[in-house]
Amino acid sequence: MSYADRVPAARVSLPVAALAAGVAAWWALVAVFEVPPYLLPAPGAVAARLVGQPDLYVRSARATLRTVLAGGAVGVCAGFGAAAVVATSSVLRRALYPYLVTARVLPKVAVAPLLLVYLGTGTGTALAFVALVSFFPTFVSSAAGLRGTPEAYLDLLRSVDAGRVETLAFVRIPAALPAIFAGLKQSAALAVVGAVVAEWIVTDEGLGYLVLVGAENVQTDLVMAAVVVLFVEGMAVYGLVAAVENRVSWQ
Predict the structure, then answer these.
(1) Rounded Cα gap, residues 113 and 120, in angstroms
(2) Has residue 16 been placed in a domain?
(3) Half-sphere exposure of residue 44, counting CA atoms within 13 Å on the CB side?
(4) Taking the C-alpha atoms of 230, 231, 236 and 242 in order, what is their torsion angle to the nearest 10 degrees?
(5) For the CA atoms of the chain, what is the radius of gyration?
(6) Under 8 Å CB-to-CB from 166, ≥6 apart: which residues?
(7) 155: helix, strand or coil
(8) Could you tell me which of 8, 101, 137, 148 has the fewest CB atoms within 10 Å of its CB?
(9) What percentage of residues in the chain have a pLDDT greater than 90?
(10) How far apart are the first and last CA of the chain?
(11) Which CATH number fits the domain that encloses residue 216?
């Protein structure tokens, strides 16, 4: 048994200690090598940005979070729905699965200009892009999990004439939960990335847009402050999925 398993408090204290060490190393790097602020601002300068303009970062974080949650929810639901259809229908599996899996390797950024042409600029395009990048991890992992149901369980359901819906709800989904949540975690992380990319291209709000503005004006402290908030937001979204997984696993 590891130290973190034997001492529950270590699950919190160790990450906090690692974060403190990272910030200290950052500060030491800037101080010792006298790194110019436009290349790498000191932690204090970034903190000053956050404290000096809290409304700006709260407003931007809220806009990004809306895009992540709304677009991610659409992508995850579509991905799971497609996985359920593919897992329960041999005809559709043979017809669609190869294309859906292959489409996963397509760079999603390459699709952004098409969304821009079809949907124009604005929140709708950002939501569509986030949904697109969130779709594939959930689909691939869920499809693999649902198709990996032990054959003995399926035989038992067939013996009592259970339909596809009952088999899916009471056997396939419970057995596939680890794979499903693995896909959800990937989708959560990619939803944040997708929201930032979308804000660079089609919107004028959010943390991604703030990063773009800061970079264009060589305000590295502004960029770093936005990245810090983005990191916290991404960890919160990922942590929410992990918390739901833990809750479901204990039931």
Answers:
(1) 9
(2) no
(3) 4
(4) 130
(5) 22
(6) 157
(7) helix
(8) 8
(9) 57
(10) 24
(11) 1.10.3720.10
> With DSSP H G I counted as helix, E B as strand and the rest as coil, what are the percentages for the chain, rounded to 5?
85, 0, 15
The answer to the question of residue 175 being in a domain is: yes
Residue 162 CB neighbours (<10 A): 16
208 contacts 195 by C-beta, under 8 angstroms:
yes
| 178-197 confidence digits (pLDDT tens) | 999 999 999 999 999 999 99
Residues 112, 119 contacting (CB under 8 angstroms) = no
The residue type at 134: S
The pTM (predicted TM-score) of the whole model is 0.88
Q: Report the C-alpha gap between 103 and 118 in whole angstroms.
A: 20
Question: What are φ and ψ of residue 129, in 5° steps?
Answer: -70, -45
In a domain? residue 14: no
**162 lies in a domain?**
yes
Taking only the tens place, the pLDDT of each residue in 56-71 is 999 999 999 999 999 9
Any idea which residue has 């950024």 for tokens? 109
Parent domain of 105: 42-250
Sorted by sequence, the CB contacts under 8 Å of residue 224 that are 6+ apart come out as 41, 46, 49
10-33 and 43-52 helices, crossing angle to 10°? 110
Question: Is residue 53 helix, strand or coil?
Answer: coil
The count of structural domains within the chain is 1
